[in-house]
Write a structure and sequence with these properties.
The complex is a heterodimer of chains A (147) and B (126). Chain A is built from three helices and five strands; from the N terminus they run βαααββββ. Chain A has 147 residues and is of the alpha+beta class. Chain A has a five-stranded antiparallel sheet with strand order 1-3-4-5-2, covered by helices on one side. In chain A, strand 3 and strand 4 form a beta hairpin. The longest helix of chain A is centred in the middle third of the chain and has 14 residues. Chain B has one domain: Thiol Ester Dehydrase, Chain A (Roll), CATH 3.10.129.10. In chain B, a hairpin with a 2-residue loop joins strand 4 and strand 5. Chain B is built from four helices and five strands. The longest helix of chain B is centred in the middle third of the chain and has 15 residues. Chain B is elongated and about 50 Å long. By secondary structure, chain B is of the alpha+beta class. Chain B is 27% helix and 37% strand. The chains are: A alpha+beta (147), B alpha+beta (126). At the A-B interface, helix 1, helix 3 and strand 2 of A face helix 1, helix 4 and strand 2 of B. Strand 2 of chain A pairs antiparallel with strand 2 of chain B, so a sheet runs across the interface.
Chain lengths: 147, 126
């Protein structure tokens, strides 16, 4: 079954996420971070952040609520049983701290087929309340058995 | 500047990471389910392993999270709990005031993250 490329360019509604200090701490502990700027408000402010800072990869937490509906969209038609997360890129902008409200929009950047595998590439763009970009994510999912 | 980090995610790490990240795909947290779909056991979240590459890169650059400007990875193979992961990397080039680090993550002889590239902006705090 060849890939259906009609969903290329499709954009999904913005997803808002309010960043909290304890959620940052939970995430930072899970991935083994130890820098006090992720846990302690005073340490973060001393380092120049307006509040407890989110580790860069916390981008996963506030943007996945936008990416997941795109992955499950019937127009995209991803076969989850055969899917693997093939690659990931993040390009960071302004730092994210506790108290920030982050809005993320995901679009279907590309769908293609190569060697019997389908490549589904999504782009998420996350911005803070000041309109500054905080991260741009490129999510590449590979589906085996396309032909 | 050399990137090196060793970490052994314990048996319950995938559960903690699932809660922290919101990714409760059962292949990561349910051994029986994972075996039913042909995996040897539950597997690590790829984005957890990517976070180890991010952590290793930031630490090698002095520890300021603002120094990490870009990170791209390819996920290959599967990571498992209870086995040590080693992240290694070295400077590939310097361009436009940024250091580009080539890195990978290995576990039990398998390179579970390949062709990772981290761009660090050092010496700035904003």
């Amino acid at each position: 079954m060849p890939v259906n490329t009609e969903a290329i360019g499709k954009a999904f509604p913005p997803f808002e996420y309010e960043v909290g200090k304890e959620k940052i701490g939970e995430y930072a502990r899970a991935v083994g971070e130890e820098n006090p700027v992720y846990f302690n408000r005073e340490a973060a402010r001393e380092a120049g952040f307006h509040d407890v800072a989110a580790p860069p990869m916390f981008a996963v937490v506030y943007s996945s609520g936008s990416v997941a509906p795109a992955l499950f969209d019937p127009d995209v038609g991803l076969n989850f049983a055969m899917m693997v997360h093939g690659g990931q890129e993040f390009v960071w902008g302004e730092p994210v701290c506790s108290g920030d409200v982050i809005s993320t929009v995901t679009t279907v950047q590309d769908i293609s087929e190569k060697g019997g595998m389908g490549f589904y590439v999504f782009e998420s763009v996350s911005t803070n309340r000041n309109g500054q970009e905080v991260v741009r994510g490129t999510w590449t999912n590979i589906v085996r058995g396309m032909s | 500047m050399n990137v090196e980090l060793k970490v052994t995610p314990d048996k319950y790490l995938p559960h903690r990471y699932a809660g922290a990240s919101g990714d409760f795909n059962p292949i990561h947290i349910d051994v029986d389910f994972a075996k039913q779909v042909g995996l040897p056991s539950n597997i690590l979240h790829g984005l957890y392993t990517m976070a180890q590459v991010a952590r290793a890169s930031v630490n090698a650059g002095g520890g300021d999270p603002r120094s990490l400007r870009r990170l791209s990875v390819q996920f290959r193979g599967m990571g498992f709990p209870d086995q040590e992961i080693t992240v290694t990397g070295s400077v590939k080039e310097e361009r436009d005031g940024r250091v580009v680090v080539a890195a990978e993550a290995e576990q039990g002889g398998n390179r579970i993250i390949r062709n990772a590239e981290a761009e660090l902006e050092l010496g700035s705090s904003s």
